[in-house]
Amino acid sequence: MADVTKGIMKFYREVKAEMKKVTWPTREQVTQYTTLILVLIASMTLIFWLADSLFVFLLRKILGV
C-alpha cells in the first residue's frame, strides 16, 4: 500500500512540475482567439443557412411544390 501512495504522490509532483513549464496564453490572446472562433462560427452558420435556403428554393422550383 505504501508503494501505491508513493507512486500517486510522485505522479502529482511530476504533474505540478510539468504544469509550471506550460506557457499560458495572455488574457489578450484568449480574448482574440475567442473572438476569432465566434466570428468563424457565425460566418459558417450564415454560409450553411444560405446554402440550405438555396437548395430548398431550387428543389421547390424543380419539384413544383
UniProtKB/TrEMBL annotation:
Its primary localisation, in coarse terms, equals: membrane
* Residues annotated as transmembrane: 33-59
Q: Name one GO molecular function term.
A: protein transmembrane transporter activity
Q: What is a single cellular component term in the Gene Ontology annotation?
A: plasma membrane
Keyword Transport applies: yes
Q: Tell me the keywords, alphabetical order.
A: Cell membrane, Membrane, Protein transport, Translocation, Transmembrane, Transmembrane helix, Transport
Q: Does the keyword Repeat apply?
A: no
Record's subcellular location: Cell membrane; Membrane
GO biological process, alphabetically ordered: intracellular protein transmembrane transport; protein secretion; protein targeting; protein transport by the Sec complex
Topology relative to the lipid bilayer, per the entry, is: Single-pass membrane protein
What is this protein for, i.e. what is its function?
Essential subunit of the Sec protein translocation channel SecYEG. Clamps together the 2 halves of SecY. May contact the channel plug during translocation.
What does the annotation say about its assembly with partners? Answer: Component of the Sec protein translocase complex. Heterotrimer consisting of SecY, SecE and SecG subunits. The heterotrimers can form oligomers, although 1 heterotrimer is thought to be able to translocate proteins. Interacts with the ribosome. Interacts with SecDF, and other proteins may be involved. Interacts with SecA.
| Family under the similarity heading | Belongs to the SecE/SEC61-gamma family.
Protein name in the entry: Protein translocase subunit SecE
According to its UniProt entry, this protein's organism is Caldanaerobius fijiensis DSM 17918
